Amino acid sequence: MKILRVNEKEMKAAVDAFFEYAMFSHRWSTTVDDEPTYDHIKGEESIYDLKTPPGIDKLQQFCKVAKENQFQWAWSDTCCIDKTNNVELQESIISMFSWYELSSVTIVYLSDVTDEKSFKNSVWFARGWTLQELIAPRLVWFYKKDWTPYINSKQNHKKDPQVVKIISEATNIDQAVILNQFVPGLRDVGSDEVKKRMSWLALRKTAKIEDMAYCMMGIFGVHMPVMYGERKNAFVRLQKEIMNLTDDLSLFDWVGEPSELHSYFASHPSCFVKPPAGRGRGSSKNSHVRLFQASKAFASAIGSTVVINVKKLLLDPPHGHFIANGKMNMPMFVHEVTKLIPADTTGPPILDADGFVDYFVKAEGLAEVMITTHKLLPINEEDSPCYRLVRMWDLNLIPPEDAVKKADEETGAGDGDGERHEGSIHTPHWLDRSDILSPMANAVTAAVSHNAVVMFMSRLREPFVAQLLIQRKRGGPYERVGTRERLIAAPSSGSITFRGIKILSVR
Hints:
The chain is of the alpha+beta class.
């Protein structure tokens, strides 16, 4: 008997090295019975002795490559999950992203690839589950139809510039996401991140419709029960879970048909197919400063009531949105629709050959816009419904403190020396007269810089992403109207009216 003297670090390194494993990624056969299952390999001493099912040779080749590269352990989704055990199946689906992420290598077999052209067009890039199998692993090796490496290198194929370029073009995923280790979840992410990730899935397919949601759980850091049979409701549940994790409003920036379960959620990932546009959403410190510099003439036109109301809002802004009793309660800027007419006035509105119809919409305080919908909207009827154009409340509308501070320094706000700087924005004279303001108004006025008001109002005058809501019965919940394209609304020329936040209940 020998006693080995090793420290904890050395012991951990030895154990980790022993249990390093290779993961398998591939396109499942269109005939599911062709793939080897848990029952096929259970109790077998060696998979190399198996002759059936037809897909066994693919599994054997994967294990051969793993063994040649000194791996003692290998995992394949076809046969390493007992799919008859619901508990094991659910745990596996929820854990799948982390398993690929922690693998020492992921071996990708591309059964339809023989050269660069076929690589770009491989069906592997069009499947739902292979999305996480691409971005989760640290090290990836691609193998062609004949089981030769796609590039003659044992280095990370995801790091090869030409390979990454082709993958980015084939998947609409930024090269930086492929090159760098992807971080799942939504902590400390930028605006439009939800829509960007959804767009990666938009043109992909899965055999089961529920998997369009389940295959994204790891990417978004979401944990939810797996319930095959719920069909489209799975994607709605995914969106609800994402909503609980982030304030990123790009979750609601989609086009197409709303879900039948909840109209403010998209019915399918294809609704996110277009990449996010920066116009009208998001913010940066510099954008607030630029708007401020262009708003000096505009500042003097802001009325006293507007200033007080904006300062109250900036002091105590609404936070988030929540679902209760099947309805979502959402803080919004609301514009009542005063005119909604078909674009074609030669007769009653009808759907065109593609199943769409155009309408002109005019709402209070906004310029007229045209929308294209897939359904005829009820108008000019007895007990006609109400329509609203809305802008969702976004915390990014609030000017950053350092941008406001910089503006205050440039304009001399709060100097106390009475000196006026040429071209500066000063607090309106009526705000200096405490005798005409209530104690509450005085407190609000003192707490928020007038420059913050100007920056905020300037942002509200920019074009923005809007949604059209319909209220079918007075006092009832609103529903979102699906549109073929993003609805970009803009304030009417000369309009500087501030509309306070309203909480609407949306079904």
